C-alpha cells in the first residue's frame, strides 16, 4: 500500500538520519542506501526537483562523472567497475535528496543525527570498556597510548583515521546546539552529548580532526556570539570559550603523555629526510605517523603524476602505480606498507591527470561556498573539515568518506535551494 506524502517525507528523513549515523558500519549503511533508493523509486511521484537540478546533480557527482569519463583508462574492467560503484551513492543522494529539497529540514535532521550518532558512540565506548578491559586498563596506566585510537576503532571493524572526520563534525554539531538550548534540562543533555563526542575524539586522537574540531567550534561559537551580543560581551565570551578549550586540552595532554610527544617531536621528526625514509633507523618506529612520511608520499605521487599529466593512470590503477613508483625509486619503507596518496587532490591528479586535480579542488570547495552563500555555519564548517582533512588524507577513496561527504553536502544544497526559492516566491508575491 502506497504511503501518503506526509508519511513519505517522514520516512525519507528517517532513512537519511540512519544512513548518516551508521556510515562507520559499512554493511548496515550499504543496505540502508539500497533500501533508500528502492523506497524513492517506488514513491517516485512524490519527488519534485528545482528547475536547475541537473546542474547541482552534476556538481555533486563530479567524482562519479570522472570515473565514467576516464573508465576506458583502467587496465581492468572489473576493478574499474569496483571503483566506480563506490561513487554511485553521490548520484543517489543528489538525485533523491534534491528531489525532496522542499520538505527536508537540514537542522531537524542534523539534530536527530547527533542524538543517534552520539548514542552509538556511547554503546561503542561501553563495549570497548567491557570486552577489551585489558587494553583499557593498560591505557589508563599510560602503556602503549599511541595505539589506543587504532585499537578502539578496530574493536568495531574500522580504522581511526577513517572515522576521525565524522567525530569532529559531531563535536561541532553538539557545540552548535549547546549554544542554542535554553532550558536547564536541555543544557544538561547537550553538555553530556558534547562530552561524549569530545571524549571520543580524544580517544581516537588524530591530529587533523582535533585541529579542525577546535577551529570550527570557534567559528560556530563566534558566529553565535556576534548575532546575540554586543562587542564587549563577544570578547569576554570568546576569551572564556578559548579558556575552556585550553583547559580541556591541558587536561588531555597531562593525562595522556603520548599526546605531548605526538604533537611535537613525533610529528616533525626527521624533516630533512623527505624521500629518503630508508636512511632513518627503524622508520616503522619513529616516522610511521610523522609528517615527513606524508611529504615523501606526496613528493613521489606528484613526480609520478607529472609523468602522465594529461590522462593519469586510471582509478583502478592509481594506487598500484604509486606503490610501483615507490619500488622503482628504491623507497623500501613506503613500498612495504603500500601507502595511499594521503591527499585527495594528488590522488585525483594521479588517476585523472591535471583535470582531475582541478576537479578535486573545485569539489572540495563546494560545501564551503554553498555554506557561505546559504549562511549555514554548520555546512560552512563541514566544508572546512572536508577540505582540510582531504589535504592530509584521501577520504574519497573510501566508502565512508564518500557517503559522509555526499549525504551532508546534498542536504546542505537542498537547504540552500529551499531558501533561495522561498526568497524568490516572496519577491514574486
Automatic annotation (TrEMBL):
Cellular component terms (Gene Ontology): membrane
Key words, A-Z:
Ligase, Membrane, Transmembrane, Transmembrane helix
GO function term, MF aspect, one: ligase activity
Domain O-antigen ligase-related intervals: 192-359
Give the location in the cell. Answer: Membrane
Q: Which InterPro entries match?
A: O-antigen_ligase-rel_domated, WaaL-like
Stretches of the chain forming a coiled coil according to its record: none
Q: Record keywords: Glycosyltransferase included?
A: no
What is the protein's membrane topology class? Multi-pass membrane protein
**Main localization of the protein described in the UniProt heading:** membrane
Q: Which residues cross the membrane?
A: 12-41, 53-72, 84-101, 113-131, 160-179, 186-204, 210-227, 234-253, 348-370, 377-392, 398-417
PANTHER family under this entry? LIPOPOLYSACCHARIDE BIOSYNTHESIS PROTEIN PA4999-RELATED (PTHR37422:SF13), TEICHURONIC ACID BIOSYNTHESIS PROTEIN TUAE (PTHR37422)
- What this protein is called in its record is O-antigen ligase domain-containing protein
